[in-house]
Task: structure prediction
Amino acid sequence: MGVPLLPPNMLNDRLLRSWIRCRRRAWLDRHGNREKRLWTSHRTLQLNEQQRNFVALLPDKPGKGIEACKRGDYGVVGVRLKGIGPFGESLQAHPALLQRVNGKSLWGEYAYRPVVARQGRRVTKEHILSLAFSGKLLESFQSAAVPDGLVVADEGNGLQLERIKIGERVEKKLLDTLEKLKKDLKRSLPPPLASDRRKCTLCTWRGVCNDQATKEGHLSEVSGIGARRREMLKELGINSLNDLANTDPLPLSQQLGRFGEQHGEVANQLIAQARVQRDGVIERLSMEPALPELVNAPGILLYDIESDPDARDDFLHGFLHLRRTSNGHWDLKNSTYHPLLIMREHGENQSWKRLQRKLKKYPEWPILHYGETESLALTRMAKRQGAAAEELTTIHKRMIDVHARLKTNWRLPLNSYGLKSVANWIGFEWHQVGVDGARALLWWRQWRGFGANGRGKPQALKWIFQYNKDDSLATWTVANWLMEKDQLMNSSK
Ligand code: SF4
Result:
């Protein structure tokens, strides 16, 4: 599998974190070919969030390395902790931050404890075991016990601190995990793909694993099958996309029904989806037109939001104006893009008024979006701003979810009905390669400026607008494909 990334017989905190997320990931970190890794914005976002939290926690800039520990700096970064594990292997940790606490260490009347920053809503096993791992190595490094570690997070309402006790139970869990990690790393072949493949979107090894999933016809490749359904199907002896495609719907519906009525009800759909993917042939599900609202519309607004989910902030509402010419054609060439930046500091009321003005200016134009995010965000904001019932009904009637219409009308040979997957399949190409919502969020934070001094990156806003506009154009590509199919159906009647 190429050049190993890490020396053999060494366990470190990075491998530990990888293993907790996915056993296969740790194996690939050790044995995988580094050239096949793909960049992900997730890690950069995490590091920036971490830096923001640490700046809020510390009274001044942290010191670096062992010299800072000797001086007794309040915060210390850049320390590499080493030790020997219970199975004779070398251990290494590079804690993100050490915080000075009361105690007695080889340097004086103080000691240190490890700190991690939390992204997401809860403290996870990854946070706890990372703290425990660094804590154990820190004990011999400073000749003082480390009874706890600290998790810090800021969800927009001030810095939250959570003390995590590193007691016997956590230590035992750490030892068990290290033992399993060591065993997995010794395997000649990688562990199986993660059962919950949603996490793969954030992983650097997703290219390698997606290829593997396609090659082996992994059940997760069938759109609509998540970790739980995959386990159920495996229990019933259905192990691959081909197995599922070759299954008789009625018995499967009864068998899946034993796990819950809702699972029995989708058996037919899952088999049909697997067959479409196996055969590569699209299937029409309804003889009704997919987008009847567009037949006489004078124009449409293509609407796409960019968000910071952790901060619950929909920072960009982008609109692409697309008119219909007098001969009935959609004038894509002269379409215009209008981004509305929603700055929290301006207050929601002002943002809502701007959005209202935009919607009222084109009252006859349907608003097309892909997925439910846009309609949920807009109606929630309208309700918070006290919009009248009549206005809410009008908005609701104008919003058209292209994703929902696609799924009601067509079955496609794709493992995902996400915008990227569908629009790419039709032939649309984004101007910026490999960009996703996470990258747009990273650009947004870069534009706003990280940390207290708020140094922004001006060009980042241009990149976000381009990405947002492309998402609207991709939505149009799907809508246009649906209308073309409708026309074909009508002309063959
Ligand atoms: S892409 Fe998914 S299966 Fe592969 S290593 Fe990453 S998380 Fe695991």
Q: What stands out?
A: The longest strand covers residues 313-323.
